[in-house]
Amino acid sequence: MKISVSFTLWLLLGAVFAEVSTDSSQDIFVALREMTASLVQLKADMTLQTQGQAQLKTEMDILKQQQLVRQVAFSAGLLAVGQVATIGPFPTNTPLIFKHVPTNIGNAYNSNTGVFTAPVRGAYHFEWWIGAVGDGRHSVLAVLVKNSEGVFTAYESQTAGYMSASNGVTLLLEVGDTVFVRLWAGHRVYDDGGHRTTFSGHLLFPM
Question: What main location does UniProt list (predicted)?
Fold first, then answer.
């Protein structure tokens, strides 16, 4: 009887320990699964955050570049500082290359060619002032040219003394359109240290 009770007690204790052990193992497995799921979610969240930061930086760089492109303005005088000269007349229409460039925001004007190239689609305003000294034979006539088409003309004629002509225009330009000033054949232009002959332009607003 004593042996039977002891044996039964051992069986009950074994069952209890087995149940406790099984429950503990299940709890551990559940905890591990939950921890693994949390780590996977955390990694996914960190990946999304990294991607979001990269995308935000890219968007900020694009906005910064667009803002820089929208800042376009230049002013240029025909001759370099200290020079005095009368240019022309030429037998053919000749582009004027304005060498003295105190302002060239956006670097859209090229002082080697005299050509302004639109970096963004928009409305631009241009002005050009042309000086000359009358000699009774030659007047001054300079045309603002968009791509290859003459737009507006600045003209003046007198027999003696200093004379000048000017004009201005607002143009809708596409990206890559060019604008420059062309001295008409048979005419001449004058410039000196006072920078009497100039070419200027700026972006009014993008479109």
Answer: secreted
Q: Check if the beta carbon of residue 153 is closer than 8 Å to that of residue 167.
A: yes
Banded pLDDT at 100 (limits 50, 70, 90): very high
Q: Please tell me whether residues 56 and 117 are part of one structural domain.
A: no
d(CA 155, CA 179): 18
Spatial CB neighbours of 125, under 8 Å, sequence gap ≥ 6: 168, 169, 170, 171, 201, 202, 204
pLDDT band with cut points at 50, 70 and 90 for residue 206? very high
Q: Give the tens place of pLDDT for each residue, 152-166.
A: 999 887 777 787 889
Angstrom CA distances, 124 to 64, 70, 153, 181, stand at 21, 11, 17, 15
Tokens describing residue 153: 């003309």
Q: How far apart are CA 82 and CA 87, in angstroms?
A: 16
Number of H helices, E strands in the chain: 1, 13
Residues 24-63 pLDDT 10s: 667 777 777 878 878 888 888 888 888 878 777 766 655 5
Question: Is 60 in the same domain as 79?
Answer: no
What single letter denotes the amino acid at residue 14? G
* Cα gap 178→205, rounded to integer Å: 17
Place of tokens 């009774």: 136
Structural domain boundaries enclosing 20: 1-69
Q: Please check whether residues 89 and 54 belong to one and the same domain.
A: no
Here the tokens at position 118 are 């639109």
User: Which of helix, strand or coil describes residue 93?
Assistant: coil
